Amino acid sequence: MSEVVKLERHDEVGIVTVNSPPVNALSAAVRGGILECIKAAIADPAIKGIVLTCAGRTFIAGADITEFGKPPKPPALNDVLSEIENSPKPVVAAIHGTALGGGLEVALACHFRVAVKEAKLGLPEVKLGLLPGAGGTQRLPRAVGPELAVKMIVGGDPIGAAEALKNGLIEEIVEGLASGGEAFVRKLLAEKRPLRRLRDDDSKLAAAKADRSIFTNAVAAMTKKSRGLEAPFAAADAVGYAIDLPFDEGLKKEREGFLKLVASDQSKAQRYAFFAEREANKIAGVPEGTKPRPVNRVAILGAGTMGGGIAMSFANAGVPVTLIETGEEQLKRGMGIMQKNWEATAARGGIPADAPAKRMALINGVVGIENVGDADLVIEAVFETMAVKKEVFGKLDQYAKPGAVLASNTSYLNIDEIAKSTKRPQDVLGMHFFSPANVMKLCEIVRADKTAPDALVTAVTIARKIAKVPAVVGVCDGFVGNRMLAQRGKQSEKLLFEGALPQQVDAVVTKFGMPMGPFAMSDLAGLDIGWRSRKDRGIKSEIADALCEAGRFGQKTGKGYYKYEQGSRAPLPDPDVEKLIDETLLRLGRKKRVVSDEEILERMMYPMINEGAKILEEGIAARPSDIDVVWLYGYGWPIYRGGPMFWADSVGLKHIADRLAFYAKETNDPSLEPAPLLKKLAAEGKTFASLAAESKAA
Ligand code: 3H9
């Protein structure tokens, strides 16, 4: 008898329960157990109807992702599903938690589905670079129609029980899981309701069969943001097979598509990213069992762009916020922006119409730092200079409650130094959010020298609670993300002095898959900030300085490295900039040369990887995958390339080290010399992944 799946009988109802923590994934053992129990229930003459349900926190959350890429083990999921669907006795899936991927596919092979009201149902395979490989693309359109099926399969986001009920994905919302499922089976039996096998029911496909534009329009809408990705398009094709082909042929084509994707580099990268994100939750060097401190209220200092965005993130997750400013006017402005942001989202249908008011009600806007007293976590998002930060933390010592975690949102300043201005350095850490903070998922959690383990765990836990992806990093200038970005910035600037143009550099970077190139990004951030800071420090950057001297501060002045039409954010190459660059080079006696796209890509990416290697060597990041998480969720690194360190492995570390050494010599730039760790791994024929595996094993 199976260890992970059990069959019990309650009178005439057979209950098949999967119990394979943490998420009841469909490992070979679970597949085998379901098959065995369904067969046994069918064979038992006392059983007239069957409930398939799960123990623990969730219904089956999908195939076991760790099995992908390994030799397949029987039974195949499709065979298990055929057994369920062919059962002469009704099989009802009783769903709680998240029925995802293969889990929903199991439920779709059942004749009926019921769920508790908190349940979520979805086919998120595209997020792993896959398409549903066990009939999901064929059965879901038959259950809910091709339009919603495309939305769920190509978009990958789950729907709630209410929407599932409205669209015929489930029959009923039940109160208690076990009793609800069982009662539903008894009702079916009493009513002698015929079995509904989705494979045989084409009724919801009729409209799209008659008018294919219903399907193609849905696909066009859902693939708008899928640039560079393979899976959403393959998944859409697979839904098309449901409309165009008989069920069995569609199933076969779906399987072919799935097998192709599972072996693709993109899916490997996306699966890696899935586990990297989860690995980042495990904090190195913290005693096992360390509990987070309770956080019932958060105080945020500063209602500017960052403070406001951070406050919104907490309110979005239902956490009450005290938002603190130094004056009424700044506070009013900050509160107004948040309200407007939420109202715009509600107008687009992104959140319910009553959400803006509810979320605003969670934010208590006040003037004066002395109001931090009831907060369990204080996040400072004030002006970015050490003197101001120290003053603020000094005051926090006086006003914050004992044991409150005191976080700075600085993007590069030394947290150890900030911590010195309090008498409780053990409570101080960094929580570096990325702009716009209510949208970007990354939160770099900066562990300072004296940060207490439970303070660190608190920050990671609360970051997850507000749907951020935390990555724990150490103290250094710019932490992980901005420190690596600085290397790219340095090279992009140098490339202009050698003959490349901003639009050429940016085009290479966006073609690689980044959302924006370095120059468009500078225009967005504003060129004047760097200009002023260079002036203060007596540093020159001839081209950037010349742009600022000409009043070109970036998007906000309608021109920077590019020009912008009124009201547009689209960067347009500007001949004036080309002229300005030419004149600057002439003045400096620099010779232009043709810079190839290949060189641009190498000089944009390899110095970042080199810096990543230094970051690992110094222990600023505990794992290469933590660096990848930073880039995936803070900078829009294309998920299908896994992150810079993962990508570096695929390029080959020896090649990268050799090219860096070459450019160091060619461009007379010692900062490009390969880092000792990179050199060592390259010489030993190793990868960052092998380094991570070695340190995990140690
Ligand atoms: C698929 O189904 C293909 C089929 O169409 C075709 C087949 C032929 N496998 O996220 P958490 C682990 S593709 C293996 O922290 P939460 C996870 O690594 C799959 N392991 O919890 C972690 O381990 P650890 C389609 C898995 O409560 C632990 O479980 N399904 C899997 O925040 C807890 O995870 C998906 O894409 C898995 N499928 O969120 C769903 N799932 O503790 C993927 C989780 O050692 N999963 N683990 O770090 C999720 O989205 C979330 O895990 C879930 C729970 C929402 C379920």
From TrEMBL:
EC number: 1.1.1.35
Keyword Lyase: yes
Entry GO MF terms: (3S)-3-hydroxyacyl-CoA dehydrogenase (NAD+) activity
Superkingdom per UniProt: Bacteria
3-hydroxyacyl-CoA dehydrogenase C-terminal domain boundaries: 478-564, 600-686
Main location per the UniProt record: other
Keywords per UniProt: Fatty acid metabolism, Isomerase, Lipid degradation, Lipid metabolism, Lyase, Multifunctional enzyme, NAD, Oxidoreductase, Peroxisome
Entry-linked InterPro entries: 3-OHacyl-CoA_DH_NAD-bd, 3HC_DH_C, 6-PGluconate_DH-like_C_sf, ClpP/crotonase-like_dom_sf, Enoyl-CoA_hyd/isom_CS, Enoyl-CoA_hydra/iso, NAD(P)-bd_dom_sf
Catalytically driven reaction(s): a (3S)-3-hydroxyacyl-CoA + NAD(+) = a 3-oxoacyl-CoA + NADH + H(+)
PANTHER family documented for this protein: 3-HYDROXYACYL-COA DEHYROGENASE, PEROXISOMAL BIFUNCTIONAL ENZYME
Family affiliation: In the N-terminal section; belongs to the enoyl-CoA hydratase/isomerase family. Belongs to the enoyl-CoA hydratase/isomerase family.
Subunit structure: Monomer.
Protein name: 3-hydroxyacyl-CoA dehydrogenase
